[in-house]
Amino acid sequence: xxxxxxxxxxxxxxxxxxxxxxxxxxxxxxxxxxxxxxxxxxxxxxxxxxxxxxxxxxxxxxxxxxxxxxxxxxxxxxxxxxxxxxxxxxxxxxxxxxxxxxxxxxxxxxxxxxxxxxxxxxxxxxxxxxxxxxxxxxxxxxxxxxxxxxxxxxxxxxxxxxxxxxxxxxxxxxxxxxxxxxxxxxxxxxxxxxxxxxxxxxxxxxxxxxxxxxxxxxxxxxxxxxxxxxxxxxxxxxxxxxxxxxxxxxxxxxxxxxxxxxxxxxxxxxxxxxxxxxxxxxxxxxxxxxxxxxxxxxxxxxxxxxxxxxxxxxxxxxxxxx
Amino acid sequence: xxxxxxxxxxxxxxxxxxxxxxxxxxxxxxxxxxxxxxxxxxxxxxxxxxxxxxxxxxxxxxxxxxxxxxxxxxxxxxxxxxxxxxxxxxxxxxxxxxxxxxxxxxxxxxxxxxxxxxxxxxxxxxxxxxxxxxxxxxxxxxxxxxxxxxxxxxxxxxxxxxxxxxxxxxxxxxxxxxxxxxxxxxxxx
Lengths: 322, 189
Fold this sequence. Notes:
The complex is a heterodimer of chains A (322) and B (189). Chain A is mainly alpha-helical and 322 residues long. Chain A has 13 helices and no strands. Chain A is 71% helix and 0% strand. Chain A is globular, with a radius of gyration of 20 Å. Chain B has a domain at 11-128: Four Helix Bundle (Hemerythrin (Met), subunit A), CATH 1.20.120.1200. Chain B is 71% helix and 0% strand. Chain B contains seven helices and no strands. The longest helix of chain B is centred in the C-terminal third of the chain and has 28 residues, at 150-177. Chain B starts with 10 loop residues before the first helix and ends in a 12-residue tail after the last helix. Residues 181-189 of chain B have low confidence and may be disordered. The interface between A and B is medium-sized, with 32 and 26 residues. Chain B: The chain crosses the membrane at residues 14-33, 40-57, 63-84, 104-126, 146-170.
């Protein structure tokens, strides 16, 4: 392959991933607006853009961009300002290694893709902690404290259940895991999938694990003092996190581009369908589930999820050896 | 091998030295800054830099473990501890400890020993970074770890378990000492 076409390919991949990074979270956000509204007997946004308010989030983005960006006097300026970037960029990096189709339909086919994705997702959680501490606001600090306690409890089950899939496939490469995938992995890795998805929700602080941003207690947790574009970046990070979590769950536990038919040509469609179904579940949970209290959160992680993920590891090991 | 010289460095070596300088600088900031949370945040840079060094040496698996465990989990633990106790915005003056200079001496001594030992042991050995790639992959590392180094690995896990049990025992013992000070409901918990 000539050097020029290589560079072209790299540039094209980066552009496609960046575009997906900017667009797909907005689609999920719009889906949340509409699905939540209909579940609550409302219509949701109907005006912006004409057809069923499809441009609502673009209008929101324009609004956020026009607002003044305020840094409180008591805040730690530098940390306060770079926190949104720390929260957002890791999800972009994670998107790079997740395959959406067979063969070369992946940003970078990393040998340790699963490890890389989990490592950068672990970095993203530092953003809210930085925001909570640097805001100089006790509600923000409490929010940061709560998210740190939550993260420490939910990181372990997430890693253990991901390790189960890696054990089943015998590789840490995400395309490699999908190549090894068979339909019977669905029941085999079911518990792990449940643990991974639940722990991921907790890591993203989505309901019912949204105690760090509980609006009735802490205003908006670590993000209370943020305004304008930086606040919008935190929101974007939340939805990008949903996209990455749903993509990873569908790749690891639901077979990614595998489907009943047309796998080779339309594999990416299967990935997207599964991802959006999972994203719908995320939204559904927000509308239908009450928020867990701090002690319930911890208890759920340590007494339910971690034993379950250990059981999944044992099941995987036994089936592998048999 | 005599064909390799340190006087005509390759791109990897230059990058290695530059990242090493970043690691050294951020490490110095971690121990000298008066602002505790800033120090913890610079520790992320330091850990990330070490991760990049591992990557440059071809140890991909160790690099991502470094980012996952030290860059992510340990820092979250640090920040949680800082926020839980006290994390004032601004400088913390009471950080000036009396044994600062002995600590510097011990640090320099340890670093000197490590550098001397490493240089003495490997000064005539040449590692080609590209040849190390197979060793640094998950397969290579797993094979090495569980074929040849299984005993030290298990010894380390026993050590960690002992440390865990010790930490629990220490914290329990102290609680029994201040028994009368406990809140009524806490005794059962």
